[in-house]
Design brief:
The protein is mainly alpha-helical. The chain has 15 helices and 3 strands. The longest helix has 57 residues.
């Protein structure tokens, strides 16, 4: 890889040039050994050779969880086959179809060639490899069980992805139908009802109360629709920024857990994630405190992150996890008691594995029940909405036809 640099020599003169090195650390070391003071150094900009895929755009620079699962399994298989680390990553970089993942693997290969450990090389790519992933790899390096660590990673990520996907995919169809219904209702109220209301008002007949309500709502939407839309967009932007703050994340996390029925689904999803994550890390030899810290970072909810952070601090001071968990209503009593049994028996990993499987089944049951409830509710809402609109228009027309 070529790096462009600016330096100052011992005489105080500025120098500019380029240096070829496997990674930036080796390039810096090479320049410093020459007695040069580095002013700036950066990789040479590469011309866009891949069209849109090579652009540095957020929606392009994305690696899917399934790709990381497949990558982990491939690494584990090649390590078991005694293929060298350098050859493994060089081959995987060549075979990668995702340009962002390929670029990351090429840089990791260069770093490994320069003597940097795999975990440290991966840590330079946080958009691809999470803190959880990197710590699992580091544990494998320290224990000498690299293939087992990547197998653990692939299994864990597969379970986590399947669990989240099941909950998300189950709600896609109802969300699409409801969104389509809202769009159709808005179009009717803003464009169709005003034209029909002109005809109905010109007849001079006394309109039913529900017809007058619909016409009034339609006139209001037609008059103030644009300002309301602008306010909605501004509110959405403000809300999006607010939930990126510490207070915003905590408030949003609490709100999700407080939603009737849906909050229970979220709770079980997070508990399954906590149990599975901690079991995976403890099984790989990562310390309890570090496991709690990393689990808090990847659980996806600020409320549970704070609980796990306090649990980690308590463990450092000699307290037990179950004592901390017992203080919070977000942690069910059954989980507190099972964790306590695991701590007392020395089989916490086994208990967490059982809890993970239990909550995964519970999430599946909650999703099935939720979908079963949404469908009839959705049908009723659609029927009532369409019925009100049709009745408010057709009844006056029918009355007018009867009077002729």
């Amino acid at each position: 890889m070529l790096f462009i640099y600016k330096t100052i020599d011992k005489a105080g003169s500025e120098q500019a040039g380029s240096i070829d090195a496997p990674n930036i650390d080796i390039a810096i070391g090479s320049l410093q050994r020459r007695g040069l003071v580095i002013v700036s150094i950066k990789p040479e900009e590469i011309k866009n050779k891949g069209g849109l895929l090579a652009l540095n755009l957020p929606f392009v620079r994305k690696v899917k969880p399934k790709e990381i699962v497949m990558l982990s399994r491939q690494i584990a298989t090649m390590f078991e086959a005694r293929v060298s680390v350098l050859a493994t990553f060089r081959l995987l970089a060549t075979e990668a179809t995702n340009p962002f993942l390929r670029s990351a693997l090429i840089e990791i290969t260069d770093d490994i060639k320069g003597g940097i450990p795999i975990s440290a090389a991966m840590a330079k790519h946080p958009a691809v490899f999470s803190d959880f992933y990197i710590n699992m790899v580091r544990a494998g390096e320290e224990s000498g069980k690299m293939s087992e660590s990547f197998t653990y990673l692939a299994d864990y990520m597969d379970r986590s992805y399947a669990l989240s996907s099941r909950a998300t995919n189950a709600l896609i169809y109802p969300a699409f139908v409801i969104a389509s219904f809202i769009v159709v209702m808005i179009l009717m109220i803003v464009f169709i009802i005003p034209r029909l209301s002109v005809i109905l008002l010109e007849t001079g007949q006394t309109l039913p109360i529900y017809t007058r309500v619909v016409i009034g709502f339609s006139n209001f939407a037609a008059t103030f629709g644009i300002p309301i839309l602008i306010l909605f967009v501004v509110g959405f932007v403000y809300f999006s920024r607010y939930i990126t703050t510490d207070n915003g994340r905590l408030s949003w996390s609490r709100f999700k857990l407080s939603i009737p029925y849906v909050g229970r689904l979220y709770q079980k999803l997070y508990l399954a994630r906590i149990s599975d994550n901690m079991n995976t890390m403890l099984s790989s030899g990562i310390s309890m405190v570090r496991s709690l810290e990393i689990t808090g970072d990847v659980v996806g909810n600020q409320v549970y992150k704070n609980i796990l952070k306090e649990a980690g601090e308590a463990v450092q001071s000699g307290s037990s996890i179950s004592d901390i968990f017992g203080r919070y209503p977000e942690i069910p009593g059954v989980m507190v008691q099972m964790v306590k049994v695991g701590e007392e028996s020395g089989k916490l990993g086994f208990v967490l594995e059982k809890l993970s499987k239990f909550y995964e089944r519970e999430v599946g049951n909650e999703v099935d029940t939720l979908v079963g409830l949404i469908e009839p509710i959705m049908i009723v809402i659609l029927g009532v909405g369409v019925g009100v609109l049709l009745t408010s228009v057709l009844v006056p027309i029918y009355n007018l036809a009867q009077g002729l």
